Amino acid sequence: MAEDPFSGLFLILWIVLIFFYPKMALMQIIWKLEQSVRDLEGMSHSSKKIVLKQIAKKPSEKTKETVDRMVEFFAVEPVSLDPYGIIPKIEQVVNAEEEKMRYTVRQITPNMDEEKRANILMGVAGAMAVNQIAKIVKHFLVMIKKTKNIQLAMILQMQLPLIERVAKAMHKGTEYLATGQPVGDSIGPLIAAKMIGGNKVKIIEEGTVIANVGYKNRKLLVMKAAGPGGRLGRLGRATESILKTHKVTGIISIDAAAKLEGEKTGSVAEGVGVAMGGIGVERAQIENIAIKHKIPLDNIVIKMGQEEAITAMPLAVKRSIPEVMDAVDRLLERTRKGDRILVIAVGNTSGVGNSAKDLKKTFEIIDKNARREEAEKRKKREENKKLLNRVFGNEEEVD
């Protein structure tokens, strides 16, 4: 019987693939990673340009070098082998980092007001995050090229969509924060400003304000980061200062919270404990002082996606305000008339002032940004439909 000529060819092809397919696959992955690194580095460069644009129309070389140094700035985590006393150590490092950044910004913006400087600091924080992501991805790309490790390449490739998603959100968020516009995370301070109304506010800690508000026959102490510049405030130390001079019977924290995929943006939930993200220093300070004075801790959270928290505040989040106020009312029903309750509004107060009179402009910006975001999404959907029509040769609209 004659030997099938194709069987020999198939055998040769199979042997070739065994030896060369992993190398071909690695080359393809590296090519994709190189594209992603270029995109990420482009976003990092663009983020720095956004910050520079807010400092000056034509920034000097010295200013550019200073922003480059700020973006590369880092803080070393304190030793935690002995966990006792780690909170004050972390607080000291964080405060030193903030002070160093503020000093640097003051040096390059001598004639700028404090609110705009606060926005620039927030913009720099966004640029730092994008730059760090780009550097880490490039680090692994170079390592993969050196070691020819296809397993490491595949792991990075699988994580890349999530990494790029975070980087794009941070890049977009840098512009909103550097220009002092309300983001999703600003919902807590926005609700606080609404509750403060026309009442007088005073500074209680650096970058933190408080107001006495009469509401539902209760005495509320409403606290938030000082706005409208982008700040987070020092809510932990401020809480300690308040409890030294006031008898408080309850603490309610209001904050944005990351939603699970499938949950509705702007949905409101109630819980117990301190609703506060970050490293945990300020949350620990509030918890410790609450335990000492035996004060119950309640919280209200407004859910949103991680990208929505650092980019333009969605309309669904803005529309959650009445539901949040209903939740506050329910929590106050458990207290007695005349009780003093501390309301802690957690979040970035970018674009949000300290009282209700400042909110008209804030709401206008939120609505304007929402319309722009919707227009961009609509344009992208139309472009995708046109692309599908061209690919499939169908002139009719593709759903």
How would you describe this structure in keywords?
399 residues, alpha/beta, Rossmann fold, 12% strand, 12 helices
Structure description:
The protein is α/β, with parallel strands linked by helices. The chain has two domains: 165 residues, no CATH class; 175 residues, Rossmann fold, CATH 3.40.50. It contains twelve helices and seven strands. A seven-stranded mixed beta sheet has the order 1-2-3-7-4-6-5. Strand 2 and strand 3 form a beta hairpin. Helix 3 crosses helix 8 and helix 7 packs parallel to helix 8. The longest helix is centred in the N-terminal third of the chain and has 51 residues. The radius of gyration is 26 Å and the shape is elongated. It starts with a helix and ends in a 7-residue tail after the last helix. The relative contact order is 0.12.
In a nutshell, what does this entry contain?
The chain is α/β, with parallel strands linked by helices and 399 residues long.
The low-confidence runs, each spanning 5 or more residues with pLDDT under 50, are none
At CATH's second level, what is the architecture of the largest domain? 3-Layer(aba) Sandwich
Order of helical and strand elements? HHHHHHEEEHEEHEHHHEH
Strand order of the largest sheet: 1-2-3-7-4-6-5
- What proportion of the residues form beta strands (DSSP E)? 5-15%
Round the Cα radius of gyration to an integer and report it. 26 Å
Number of domains: 2
Distance between the termini: 57 Å
